[in-house]
Design goal:
7 helices, 4 domains, 412 residues, five-stranded mixed sheet, alpha+beta, Immunoglobulin-like, single chain
Length: 412
């Protein structure tokens, strides 16, 4: 296994990525090895990042785009179409602003040219007719490895590599490239409320993690920035500053969240009790009592509002968000189970409006009105209980009816 510790200097050819906007070291680039990751931890890493395994030789199992079918019974991360024949293509995944290293094994003295192959078929059949020669290993004693940089503007696609000498013996590699900034931003968001905050494990020391770059650094740094350390570390009760409504940052985040709420749409207030994580589905579920504005950090640090994306007025149910990041289907709220004093009780105005039946709560124009003389009348400009004339009330009812006609279209 070839593990290298690089002293990296970015030259003119690698000037697109930078440490301010991309990876916070090595001039903005992180390293990946042709053979994945080694078992050796980088002692200079603040979050236990392992060194790349950059060995490039025959007899190793490199993913090269071949289909593999996963076992759904053995892995919680196995879903269709990968769980169905013929399976899914296999790649080494990486991102823009990374440098891929191909290194000869220790003791190797024969250089090997590295080619970029045009597609999977050429890689699989070792057809080098339209291959592009990129460079070679062992160009000098000081630089035994060949490196290939994926710049910020690289096409987000699949890349295939091989060497003629060992292609037929498995020396071929497929790499799938994703956008650095998009992935880093997503992982940074995960770090804000991760369950690792509870016991102050933002640096991934107490429990191992399979996160790779750039997600690992973005996640760990975000978690650490939002951590409130103290005695709570020992009791696993720490929360993020963004989950703490009493913290200035937490209050700012919650108020900004409320600005985006639509309290006319039902939903599920998930994880008020804090027992849930992004994946375990164990948080408390409340489909009845709260609106979007009420279900936030002021109610409970871990409360999460999941609006319904569809409603069925007949069955009185709605599809209202995922309990786990790995769920394929939304949780179904059954509003018929709500109590009469709950906000989303099916006998209440809020649920009627949400399902387009709010006009059933409007008084009929044919109802008689009682005057101050105690007599009932059904004609003339009589006043209703709100002090409105019938003509005023009719206009208001017409406007409400139009509103209730349009509202259900929002759920289509």
């Amino acid at each position: 296994m070839r593990i290298l510790i690089w002293s990296f200097c970015v030259g003119a050819a690698l000037a697109q990525c930078n440490e301010d906007e991309h990876h916070p070291a090595n001039g903005g680039y992180f390293f990946i090895g042709a053979a994945g990751l080694s078992d050796e931890v980088n002692p200079d890493s603040s979050h236990g990042r392992r060194f790349p395994n950059s060995t490039w030789t025959t007899g190793m199992d490199y993913p090269h785009g071949q289909n593999v079918q996963c076992d759904a019974d053995a892995s919680p991360f196995c879903f269709p179409p990968c769980s169905e024949a013929p399976g899914c293509p296999q790649f080494r995944t990486s991102h823009t602003c990374s440098i891929l290293h191909f290194c000869p094994p220790e003791g190797e003295t024969v250089p090997q040219k590295v080619y970029r192959m045009p597609d999977y078929e050429a890689t699989h059949t070792c057809d080098f007719t339209n291959a592009e020669e990129l460079g070679s290993t062992l160009m000098s004693e000081m630089e035994p490895c060949f490196e290939y940089a994926f710049e910020e503007d690289h096409e987000l696609t699949d890349y295939y590599f091989s060497s003629q000498e060992g292609c037929a013996e498995g020396q071929r590699l497929a790499v799938q490239i994703f956008d650095y900034s998009m992935t880093a931003d997503q992982c940074s968001q995960m770090g804000i409320t991760t369950s690792r905050l509870r016991n102050c494990d933002c640096r991934l020391e107490k429990s191992p993690s399979t996160l790779s770059e750039p997600c690992r650094t973005a996640f760990s740094d975000s978690c650490q920035e939002n951590l409130q350390e103290g005695d709570c570390c020992d009791t696993s009760t720490c929360i993020s500053i963004q989950e703490d409504y009493t913290h200035p940052k937490g209050k700012e985040v919650e108020l900004a969240r409320r600005e985006q709420c639509d309290d006319d749409i039902p939903g599920m207030c998930y994880n008020e009790d804090g027992a849930g994580t992004r994946t375990n589905r164990m948080g408390s579920i409340n489909c009845c009592a709260h609106t979007c504005s009420a279900c936030g950090s002021e109610l409970a640090p871990f409360a999460s509002w999941k609006p319904c994306t569809s409603l069925d007025a007949e069955s009185k149910t709605g599809q209202c968000g995922l309990l786990s990041a790995y769920d394929a289907d939304a949780y179904e709220c059954d509003f018929s189970l709500c109590e009469s004093d709950d906000h989303w009780t099916v006998d209440g105005m809020a649920f009627a409006v949400a399902t387009g039946n709010g006009d059933s709560f409007i008084k009929s124009d044919s109802e008689t009105e009682t005057h101050s003389d105690g007599e009932s009348h059904s004609d003339g400009e009589n006043m209703n209980s709100d002090g409105e004339t019938k003509s005023d009330a009719n206009m208001k009812n017409a406007n409400r009816a139009l509103f209730y006609f349009i509202l259900p279209m929002l759920f289509l």
